[in-house]
């Protein structure tokens, strides 16, 4: 009777889990209805999505993508390949497409949570439903501000996050071809995925790298079918946009720069160094070298563990916004790290629990920016000014590193 009872309990718990995701999906749909009544926007308005919608329309007809003078602030800054992804959205009226994109991002949120569970806690179907539900709710609260921003702005950061989490999942399942295709496609949305290349090389995953290279070449030339004679110019404009973005990140003291080198400089004597000084260049090299060495030590330290890639990917993805900051929404990349620490909280030492807990608070602490109150705006301005979001991410990374140093995970 014991095996039968176990199977019955698995079905009950699986139904409970399905119910959780159904309720979560209904909540996302309810938030969509709430956004329609938003008196500040005059209804739903995915400001950044209009860039992708317009790009999909232009890709469909082969028109010029990059028009910074005409498009102004909402000009296209991504690859010609990425514009092809949004062609289906451009086939319907913009108002309807906004709703569909909101539902699309909502589905991605649920997919990201499910894949994170599969990676961090493969046996979650047999877990206590109450404990599992509590941990999922905590994860949603910690990551909620980033999810809400993605929904209300219509950006692509969460799409990238789920692609990276899918790569981690496929890595654990030894699926090199699909992994490489998703990896290559992500590069043409934003090139953050290149941070995974050294990891695959260290792990000697040369088959995955070979497939990635092949898919990247294919996806690079694919827009030639749409843009034809203008193909090379479109690619050149894309490279120019990336070069401009890199030059902006090079300014350590630029307001709003939340990269690791900028945050350390903000709270150290480095801030007295003159911009453009050779000492500043040396400082950047030292910081990036130290980060690289710490990442290599972390990866090597886990070589004898059963599933080291779980923590490896959580660390690398959480590190991404500190290396290639674009906006606060990119800090949603900590999702896998949040799941890792929440679902292994009992394995942490007391000081590690405190460090992780403070990190969780700082990651989700800029929620006040979403409230239409003056005090909320002022709180967020101070929060952003002293880079608490970056500091929270650093605390999570430090916790993960010490857990790996003890070879716990």
Descriptive overview:
The chain is globular. The two termini are 35 Å apart. With 409 residues, it is mostly helical. The mean pLDDT is 84. The chain contains 20 helices and no strands. Helix content is 71%, strand content 0%.
Number of strands: 0
Low-confidence stretches: none
Computed structural class:
mainly alpha
Mean pLDDT: 84
- Can you write the helix and strand succession as a string? HHHHHHHHHHHHHHHHHHHH
Shape: globular
For this entry, what is the oligomeric state of its chains? single chain
The portion of residues forming beta strands comes to under 5%
The N- to C-terminal Cα distance equals 35 Å
Helix content: over 70%
The largest sheet, given as strand count, sense and whether it forms a barrel, is: none
What would you report as the Rg, rounded to the nearest angstrom? 22 Å
Number of helices: 20
């Amino acid at each position: 009777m014991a095996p039968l009872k176990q199977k019955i309990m698995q079905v009950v718990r699986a139904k409970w889990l399905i119910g959780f995701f159904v309720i979560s999906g209904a909540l996302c749909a309810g938030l969509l209805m709430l956004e329609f009544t938003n008196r500040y926007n005059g209804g739903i308005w995915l400001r950044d999505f209009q860039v992708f919608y317009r790009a999909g329309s232009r890709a469909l007809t082969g028109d010029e993508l990059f028009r910074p003078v005409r498009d102004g602030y909402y000009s296209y800054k991504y690859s010609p390949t990425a514009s092809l992804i949004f062609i289906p959205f451009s086939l319907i009226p913009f108002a309807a497409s906004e709703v569909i994109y909101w539902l699309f991002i909502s589905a991605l949120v649920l997919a990201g949570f499910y894949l994170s569970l599969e990676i961090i806690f493969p046996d979650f179907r047999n877990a206590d439903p109450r404990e599992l539900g509590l941990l999922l709710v905590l994860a949603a609260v910690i990551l909620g501000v980033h999810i809400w921003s993605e929904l209300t702005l219509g950006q692509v950061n969460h799409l990238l996050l789920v692609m990276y989490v899918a790569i981690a999942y496929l890595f654990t399942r030894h699926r090199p071809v699909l992994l490489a295709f998703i990896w290559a496609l992500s590069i043409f949305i934003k090139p953050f995925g290149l941070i995974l290349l050294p990891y695959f090389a260290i792990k000697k995953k040369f088959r995955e790298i070979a497939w990635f290279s092949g898919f990247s070449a294919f996806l690079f030339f694919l827009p030639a079918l749409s843009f034809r004679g203008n193909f090379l110019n479109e690619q050149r404009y894309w490279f120019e946009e990336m070069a401009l973005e890199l030059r902006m990140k090079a300014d350590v003291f630029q307001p709003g720069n939340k990269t690791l080198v900028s945050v350390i400089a903000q709270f150290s004597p480095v801030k007295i160094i003159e911009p453009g000084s050779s000492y500043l260049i040396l400082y950047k090299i030292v910081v990036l070298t130290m980060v690289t060495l710490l990442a290599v030590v972390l990866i090597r330290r886990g070589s004898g563990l059963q599933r080291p890639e779980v923590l490896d990917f959580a660390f690398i993805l959480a590190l991404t916004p500190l290396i290639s900051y674009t906006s606060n929404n990119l800090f949603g990349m900590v999702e896998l790290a949040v799941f890792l620490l929440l679902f292994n909280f009992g394995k942490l030492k007391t000081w590690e629990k405190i460090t992780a807990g403070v990190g969780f608070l700082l990651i989700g602490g800029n929620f006040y920016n979403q409230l239409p109150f003056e005090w909320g705006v002022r709180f967020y301005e101070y929060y952003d000014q002293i880079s608490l979001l970056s500091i929270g991410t650093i605390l999570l990374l430090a916790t993960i590193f010490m857990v790996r140093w003890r070879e716990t995970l």
